[in-house]
Write a structure and sequence with these properties.
Layout (H helix, E strand, L loop, with lengths): L1 H17 L2 E9 L2 E13 L5 E11 L11 E2 L9 E19 L4 E19 L10 E5 L5 E13 L9 E7 L4 E7 L1
Parallel strand pairs: 4-7
Antiparallel strand pairs: 1-2, 1-10, 2-3, 3-5, 5-6, 6-7, 6-8, 8-9, 9-10
Amino acid sequence: MKKLLYLIVLHLFISNGFCQHFGMGIGGGVSGVSLTLGGIGSSRNSLGNKNTQYFGMFGSSSILNDRSEDNTYDFSETVFDDEDRGKIKESFWFVGGQLFNLNERNKVFVGGGFSLTHKYYKRYDSSEILSDDGIYFINDDKSKEYKPTFYLGFSNKLDNNNFGLKYFGLYVNLHPFDISIIGWL
């Protein structure tokens, strides 16, 4: 939960300083449930006229799992004979790109960026030596991936709603594959 709070505070700080709209959404994909944060800004030409609109997005699928620095270790997965609970996959992506107005109500987002994916072995220690609840994670050094990614989205202007949202949309990140719904203030 601490990770989520840090990300929201950082996002609000950056968005309020540099962006006209900021958005937050939830999604899911190959790495599990994800949280996406974004900002929309615009640049101006030398005459002061609005030139182009751009966006930046940060997504993470590690927010809702129980892994932390306190229960993650960097030793071989075969050191202890603890119960194997599979693997977890965490992904982070940062993308940016161009925003195109289709008409007065609809916008298309097209961009790209980079992503980081990492896997961890999940183990259970019934004597609870390595963590309070017995669950601990082992770093899988061979699973780190840094890759480029492509991002595509579509949003629609909202008229009246109880949340103060100006736009609502659907967004797709290709690596790792993740689909998010985002509301924009």
